[in-house]
Structure to design on (852 residues):
């Protein structure tokens, strides 16, 4: 009996409810003394469990998240195909410096300040192994950002 | 025990005619208490907890019938009650997918109110003849509304009533109510009764006397360098760290056939150099379910000086065994892969995408390693979309087994289209995900599955573009993958730092090659990176809080520049180790830095004093003891990181069942949430101070 039911009962039948309210716990105490409980007067709740279910481990509990995607799936290519990737995929211009060095394909400094940027980032004069894309070897002596090149202090 | 709701004051006014009866009732109640019944100390926040009040639909007031999927089911009220007259009964008679659950109504009258940072003890009496039953919670975000929170505990089969209890995690910020119930997601019957929810908030912590370290943490540069270029780092279940260089981005070493690895012992401060059979520079790597490390692909060749070819990918694969500190060859991949991804799936298999082939072109071949067969499957047995995924594509395993390509990659532009996708291996379909900002400037960004993994939220940080080489950006993007149609939304900007010489970054300058490390307190430590490709290191570190989606700026910064070929990762003692820096001038910084987060300065650490077993099972309640109260426990997967990429990094919450000093840790049933393998088990106290980890194996 919950609180609302108790209130309702009290409003309608106060004396009877009071009597019940006193009597029920007294019966319970008597039952406890006798070694039983009030609930023992009824069958204990029980749910049949199969041996198989008792031995089973729980399955992964998976939710229906992200199942309402509004975009349509992409159309897959029909088979393997060639995907060209530039040789300078690492962003380095390997025409400058040693094999270990990486002069950025796009030096993040304005023209005229690129040698300064390279110097600030640890580069010394750089051998030009191929094309001088960045125009760092203005005196064309084969050394970029070397003595005599523009922008070299 | 049923805990009645508080009588409203107006109701008392209506009872003048029955005060005598009430007096008798009070006396009777006192008799009951003297007779042995106990009082409930804490308030039960559940409305209609005993299910005794029924609504006009015949179902308990404040409860609703909920669920989804293809299954035949019924809801009802039964007199098979634990106490009182009513219990709720949910039956599923046939099942394909989904669940059914009786949940508290999501309205202000029925949903229990909660306080952020508090924890609540949820208890329910139940009987179930299905093993597929779980306590499920939802939370009301004051901004975003009602949303799934977490499955907290799997209930064991029981033909008689038994009580299941579990502590919620600390309630996230902006949460004012939660609802919960018991889900059944298989054939069977579930009967529940007598729900309770009590505030279980504890306090802890102590003062901090460590000055700035109390709030910023502190860095230590170790007095000895790494003997190898630590371009790849894998934390082993031994607690040691495998550092892999291969040729170490040094063409001269490559020409000499000089390939190196080393195992670092953080406790002893010693290194063991490992014979390395091939050039694992730019390989992929991931821990297998038994803790060995699968290494795939690598560097077959550096670009030719005349531009006739670029980098070429190896098609070989090896397994590193931490027990013997040696590599063992396995069968070859179907294709060469330079910069491949590697993601462990829920069944322990590994899937890999992308990279460059042996002819320097992009590989469109997906590779699949069978854990059962311990080999890479032949091409005919692997689902192929023949799509090019780029270099080191970040592929994160979702809770249903699909893969989320976050858009994080290395080198050049993002993929065509939206720049992010969900890939379904079963149906072999790729579906675009929209909302990612500036997708072609996310080269060398980092993505992380935010704590806890159950929340299915991903954060993507920073990035640039090595070809156009703009200033790296401050962007972050967040996505909630529990939504039906998830899309990225802009997150907070990465805090600005300083450049070499102390020059402050401008308001638009951010970082690429950033590291994001999940910590045991549930926050993400963001550190390292540079403004440009292999140049202009940024000195900045911050703490990202997944509960508030905010950065705390001003963490202590690594004194060592950490740009290209740097990594940071969590150690079992709760510190963060950072290695590597390979600027464009060709040098390599061999120094090692270790970061101690603020939590290491804020009081005594809790200790895990016993773990009943280190062999854990999905859906189980694993038992531990601790020396002091804790508020959370978590599994953190050891990192395997390179190039700002570790799509397997994750933090799995372990909801607590507390019985005195014995603590039950409730493990997810779902291996897609926690793929099989070795994990670091941390516990954390109310001050957010974690223990040292203990290693446990989940399978």
């Amino acid at each position: 009996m919950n609180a609302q039911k108790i209130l309702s009962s009290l409003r309608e039948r106060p004396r009877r409810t009071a009597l019940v309210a006193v009597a029920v716990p007294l019966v319970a105490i008597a039952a406890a003394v006798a070694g039983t409980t009030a609930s023992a007067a009824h069958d204990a709740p029980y749910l049949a469990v199969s041996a198989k279910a008792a031995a089973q481990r729980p399955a992964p509990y998976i939710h229906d998240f992200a199942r309402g995607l509004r975009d349509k799936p992409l159309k897959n290519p029909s088979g393997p195909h060639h995907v060209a990737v530039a040789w300078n995929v690492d962003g380095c211009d390997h025409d400058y410096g040693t094999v270990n060095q990486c002069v950025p394909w796009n030096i993040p400094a304005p023209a005229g300040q690129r040698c300064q940027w390279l110097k600030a980032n640890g580069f010394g004069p750089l051998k030009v192994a191929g094309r001088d894309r960045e125009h760092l070897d203005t005196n064309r002596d084969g050394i970029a950002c070397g003595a005599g090149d523009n922008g070299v202090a | 025990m049923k805990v009645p709701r508080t009588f409203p004051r107006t109701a008392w006014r209506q009872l003048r005619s029955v005060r005598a009866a009430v007096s008798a009732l009070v006396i009777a109640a006192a008799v009951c208490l003297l007779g042995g019944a106990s009082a409930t100390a804490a308030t039960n926040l559940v409305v209609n907890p005993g299910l005794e009040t029924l609504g006009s639909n015949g179902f308990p007031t404040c409860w609703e019938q909920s669920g989804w999927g293809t299954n035949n089911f019924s809801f009802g009220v039964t007199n098979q009650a634990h106490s009182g007259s009513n219990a709720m009964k949910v039956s599923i008679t046939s099942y394909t997918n989904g669940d059914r659950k009786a949940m508290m109504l999501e309205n202000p009258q029925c949903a229990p109110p909660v306080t952020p940072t508090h924890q609540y003890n949820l208890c329910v009496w139940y009987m179930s003849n299905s093993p597929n039953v779980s306590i499920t919670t939802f939370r009301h975000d004051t901004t975003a509304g009602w949303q799934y929170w977490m499955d907290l505990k799997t209930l064991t089969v029981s033909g008689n009533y038994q009580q299941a209890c579990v502590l919620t995690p600390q309630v996230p910020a902006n949460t004012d109510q939660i609802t919960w119930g018991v889900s059944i997601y298989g054939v069977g019957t579930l009967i529940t009764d007598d729900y309770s929810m009590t505030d279980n908030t504890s306090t802890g912590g102590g003062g901090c006397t460590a000055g700035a370290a109390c709030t910023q943490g502190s860095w230590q540069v170790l007095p000895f360098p790494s003997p190898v270029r630590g371009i790849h780092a894998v934390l082993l279940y031994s607690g040691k760290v495998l550092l892999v260089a291969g040729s170490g981005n040094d063409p001269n070493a490559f020409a000499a056939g000089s390939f190196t690895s080393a195992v670092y012992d953080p406790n002893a401060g010693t290194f063991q150099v490992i014979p390395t059979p091939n050039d694992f520079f730019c390989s992929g790597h991931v821990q297998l379910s038994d803790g060995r490390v699968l290494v795939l692909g690598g560097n077959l060749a550096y670009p030719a000086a005349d531009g006739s070819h670029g980098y070429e990918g190896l098609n070989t694969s090896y397994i590193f065994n931490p027990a013997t500190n040696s590599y063992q060859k396995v069968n070859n991949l179907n294709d060469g892969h330079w910069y491949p991804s590697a993601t462990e799936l829920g069944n322990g298999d590994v899937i890999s995408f992308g990279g460059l082939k042996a002819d320097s072109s992009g590989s469109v071949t997906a590779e699949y390693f069978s854990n059962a067969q311990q080999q890479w499957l032949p091409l005919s047995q692997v689902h192929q979309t023949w799509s090019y995924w780029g270099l080191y594509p970040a592929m994160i395993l979702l809770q249903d087994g699909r893969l989320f390509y976050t858009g994080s990659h290395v080198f050049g532009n993002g993929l065509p289209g939206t720049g992010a996708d969900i890939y379904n291996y079963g149906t072999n379909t790729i579906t675009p995900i929209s909302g990612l900002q500036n997708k072609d400037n996310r080269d060398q960004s980092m993505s992380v599955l935010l704590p806890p993994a159950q929340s299915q939220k991903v954060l993507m940080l920073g990035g640039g573009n090595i070809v156009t080489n703009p200033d790296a950006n401050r962007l972050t993007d967040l996505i909630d993958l529990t939504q039906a149609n998830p899309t990225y939304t802009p997150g907070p900007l990465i805090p600005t730092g300083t450049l070499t010489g102390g020059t402050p970054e401008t308001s638009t300058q951010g970082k690429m090659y950033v590291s994001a490390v999940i910590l045991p307190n549930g926050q993400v430590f963001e550190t390292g990176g540079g403004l440009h490709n292999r140049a202009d290191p940024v000195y900045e570190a911050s703490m990202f809080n997944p509960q508030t989606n905010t950065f705390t700026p001003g963490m202590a910064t690594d004194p060592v520049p950490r740009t290209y070929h740097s990594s940071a990762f969590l150690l079992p003692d709760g510190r963060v180790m950072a290695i590597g820096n390979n600027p464009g001038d060709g040098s390599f910084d061999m120094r090692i830095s270790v970061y101690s987060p603020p939590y290491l300065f804020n009081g005594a650490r809790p200790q895990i004093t016993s773990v009943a077993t280190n062999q854990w099972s999905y859906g189980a309640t694993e038992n531990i003891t601790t020396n002091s109260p804790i508020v959370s426990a978590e599994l953190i997967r050891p990192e395997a990181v390179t190039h700002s990429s570790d799509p397997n990094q994750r933090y799995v919450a372990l909801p607590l069942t507390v019985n005195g000093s014995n603590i039950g840790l409730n493990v997810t049933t779902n291996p897609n949430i926690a793929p099989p393998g070795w994990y670091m088990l941390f516990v954390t106290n109310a001050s957010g101070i974690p223990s040292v980890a203990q290693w446990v194996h989940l399978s």
In short: Strands of chain A lie at 126-127, 143-144. The first helix of chain A runs from residue 3 to 12. Confidence is low (pLDDT under 50) at residues 1-41 of chain A.
